[in-house]
What we know:
By secondary structure, chain A is an all-alpha fold. Chain A has helices at 2-9, 22-40, 46-68, 72-89, 98-131, 140-145, 165-180, 190-198, 200-203, 211-218, 226-260, 267-298, 316-322, 325-339, 352-371, 375-396, 399-420, 423-449, 456-481, 493-513, 520-526, 528-542, 545-556, 560-578, and strands at 344-345, 348-349. In chain B, the strands form 6 sheets. Chain B has a 5-stranded parallel beta sheet with strand order 16-5-17-18-21, sandwiched between helices. In chain B, strands 6, 9, 10, 12 and 15 form a 5-stranded antiparallel beta sheet that branches. In chain B, strands 8-7-11-14-13 form a 5-stranded antiparallel beta sheet, with no helix packed on it.
Amino acid sequence: MSDFWQHILGFNAESPLLFTQFYFWAFFALVYALFALLMSVGKTTNSKLHLRNVYLMFVSWFFYYKTSGLFLLILAFVTLSDWFIAQRIRAKIERKWAPRLWLTLSVVIDLSILFYFKYAYFFTNVINDWFGADFRVFDIFAYIGNGFSEAGRFDVDTIILPVGISFYTFQVISYTCDVFRRKIEPVKNILDFGFYVSFFPQLVAGPIVRAEEFIPQLYKPFRLSRRAFGIAVFWILNGLAKKIIMSDYLAVNLIDRVFDNPLLFSGFENLFALFAYSLQVYADFSGYTDIAIGVAMLMGFYLPMNFNSPYKSKNPQEFWRRWHMSLGRWLKSYLYIPLGGNRTILGFKAPKLWAANFNSFITQVLGGLWHGASWNFVLWGAINGVGMIVEKIWREWNWHVRFAAISALTFGLVLLDYFYNLPVWRLFAVWAAIIWFGTAIRYIYWLITADKIINHKFEILNNKIANAWAILQTFAFITFTRLFFRSSSNLDPATANEVAWATAKNMVNQIGGAWSNAIIPDFLWEYRWVVAMFIAGMVIHWIPTNFKRRYRLWFSAMPLWLMVIVVCLAIVVIYQFVSAEMQPFIYFQF
Amino acid sequence: MVSLAALCVVLPERFAFGEKELRWPTLAEVIGTEEAYPRPLPEEEGSITSPDTIAPSPDTLPSLRGRTEERLIIPKITVDSATDSRLFLRAFYASLADAGTKKIRVVHYGDSQIEEDRMTQQIRETLQAAYGGSGVGLVPLAQTIPSLTVRQELFLSGRFVSPQNGPKRYLVYGPKRDQRTDGLYGPMGQMAYMSDSLVKGSETVKAICQPLQPNMHYDRFRLFADTSVHYTTSRDTMFLSGRGGVYGLSQESKTGIIVDNIPMRGCMGIVFTKMDSTQLSTFYSEENVRLIIMQFGGNAIPSNKNPGTIQAIVKGLRQQVQYLRRCAPEASILFIGPSDMLTQIDGEWTTYPMVPYMDKLLRKMALEENIAYFSLYRWMGGSGSMMKWQEVGLAGSDGVHFTRAGARKAGKAVAEWMMEGNE
């Protein structure tokens, strides 16, 4: 019996609480039943709202304990420290510099915690590499936990990354900053504040809820309309389908095996897997946040939209406005603007374009490092930054310059490919040639139609084609950056970096050097379910937003009995993918 | 939730939908009191000693969710697990006494687990450290899979060419379009053909073969090719001219142990009988091949769920062993069986049910054929061990392939096991 309770209530590192597990839904059903009871009894008063917040905070703490064990203490610590500091920031004192000092202290504490747990290995590795040192990480908290001893319950040689730390530290930073900027009032009750920091649907994987977006909701009474209920259920189902059908199925049956061993697969298979990985990353992350949004909505809380069909973006800048929007907004408010925005570079006044490009590049690089503590993520951020800047410059050019630039680039790459015949040049040459082709057509069109009155319908059609082309090019670019996005280890950045680099190199070598047209029909046939899932995923992704909104509303307005049937059917279908047999290995390339 | 729970009670675990079979979990499975799919039977360690033919009495894997009509019938086999199969390496061990004065060749054939010279390099290092010898051994003219031990590049008329744009390759384990009808693949099971369309007039093909590991220095840089192909060498570069088949390049020492890494991607190992026996015999005898390592079986697992098919595959492998023995009567043979391999069944990662069965069948076959057998599967820890390997970064997320670190560990284990047999 004690095993049973240990299973239900205890922490098990190998079995964290995930939205895709039955345990989570049983947990949520229980939590929601009590929540509904609480909300339905008596009138809505402040003390009842407070009770709701306290109840959800302790539920969230239990959720975090099940996911991360004693790391709950870190969550408790940042809650306490930032609650206290926020009070001090707005305390009536004479010294003008005091609020800024308190804010600095808050940011230093939060970032120190993040750096300690997330970047200790990375910076140790950097110092060792640069200065030839041989430092090792030492977990001071484990040492203290062992009663100031290296031996004991906790391993002092390993620093484990607590789940969700990147998200909730950013969230508390946003709180103290918003209090400092007087966008919100400090939360008086620490338990209310604890609820904001730890609200379980978004605790481990976002969205990063900024204080000014969420704190006001703490004091609003619970309200869930019939339509909101339907929409919440829709988001949950949508998220589960994305995560299990699009993400996990594609990963297990193709993507993981290709990324693990790119050399086992032909160039076409590698390229297909890379594009599929783009879809997988989106489906995985956005699926998770869809569920978070739906679960929160059922409890009457509104989390911000986190993904807005990012692969519909027509340029990299737009992509970053549609992808992981809560992080993008956070970085803009609390990093890009403090860095100088489009006004200053390192504190010095600079031309708008220069300042904007410089600061957005730094933001992208640091944003890259936020995603993972190894150089490949820095490189990933840098490539995104460069892509964004290049595209912005491209937009400033007229068609003569654009065509000349892309022609020169393509010619140069073709020459490099001819003389050096390396896969990487072949890949870039083909890619440049494709862009050149699109540019040439638009250039010719521009030459023909410049200063002429064009039939309106024809112009609309032309714009649609141009948009589709831009979307495909942006998708291709973002997919290319994904080469550096996959990492194998959080503990050892050297290994993570080596693996990521070797994977990227091998994939480029295969795509540019071992293309093998002959196997394409065989691959498409043998992997037909995987291919069908990918195509279906992309088609659904590219469905117009209005249409999606319409079927979401249609679903939410269904009679309850019909909704139950649809939900059950959807779960049965999703379960087929959970339990589907694996696609066997087929080596097309020999 | 209530409706879904009701479905668990109402719906059968498997039900037909058109031609498809759909699945739905039981309530016990959902709340975690029943394993979604039971693990295969535990190993039968040490209790069975009499090698015999496959016994007719059926053993069963635990049922698929306990339903008798879905039982997977695995024939019970008796395997002699007491005999140390290294006794069949005696001839090889005896030959090592001459390593100081002669060259002794070990040929390691295998599937994708040994690509990039993985595993083989650990065997090579260990044997060469003990008995001398150096060099990477045989490599193909056009190396399509980068190796960890040697960097290869090919130049035509001074221009770098990727292996795919180089000479036409024929592979005994490749698709039909890449196969030959005359069986002349050479000892590596692959041949690159220098044709008129590839080399014009008296142009040469320049092949760079640069060692990347400390034990890769060599005394001789040799070519195995048709007599119509000529070559000269300069340091790590070989210049080839003429027309004809190239079976491999070899960097090797004059004496000591030479170990050839010959990966055959996607291959189940039933290909040797398609290779010309005269060519093989000549190579094995002239090159003093005293040990042939065959590492196959893994590729048979994912697509064969029927014990009968596995039996047929092992029968095919037995024929390959017999064929290689006829081609190389002086050589000992070591068979390395498949590792633990994972698949998802009803959403749970688990060992392919056929892995332990195939492992036993292979060991039985090996003992009957008087060849040594190393069970990677058992050495790893048996059923589910691949998951532990994944957790510590020794195996990839596909649950089939080792990472480089995993391959190093496995190669070292095989090498040490061989060395211990000679003590």
